[in-house]
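Sat 14:20. Reprocessing the chain from the morning session after the first attempt stalled halfway. Input below, unchanged.
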Amino acid sequence: MKQVIPRVSSPVYMLREKMLASFVEKVLLQFGKHKTPLGLSYTASLKQDIKLIPARLLECVKHRCYVFRGVLHGTMLKNQAFYFISVGTLLERAERVYQASIKVINKDAVGNKGTDGNFFDFYHWAALLRSVSAFEIYRQIYFDQVTPKQVTQLLIFNKQMPRSLICCVSELIPLISEMKNQQSKEIERLLGKLKASLDYSDIDEVFEQGLEEFIESFLEHINHVADEFSSAYLIPLAVA
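Finished this time. Tokens:
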């Protein structure tokens, strides 16, 4: 069945379409430049119908990411290369949760001025959950309305949630133990200290301190860990 394209001429819609087209063009260019399997498989077909189905490119990228992670964890030898990839994934995942959270906090703070807070709470915080693939997990744990406090509890303190901050930190510690060298002691100390601070904090303490301040503090600590990791295993940042 042929897709019906809505004829919308609002400035917001046109701006969104222009930004999406620009993004798609850049991604397709990268696919073609590096001759990746994703680019070779999908570039031609995407160029033909991307204007009709703009979400298809993102679905292709997501699908390939799932395939890569499945191959990585299902078939790759658990050696130094595997540990490096896993450490990078966890550091980036923690930083990603931070970036998404800060955007929602800022939007919520601006949007609530003169507007019904419940409206902004639900849509902004539900979008945050979806951006880290946690919306369905949230529904499994909490059966009521999406609220900032419960979203924060899930994304910071829930050890069963793969993208929670405490889960990222907890999984980093044994990985660093597998990669020990003369310089890794400081990384283990920083991670242990960060994990202890998460273990002995709770959601009420976070909101008393201020959610934005708490997340900023976490980012500072995780960036320190990343810097030490670079110094211990890669080219020191000062030299790079």
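Residues 80-111 form the longest helix (32 residues).
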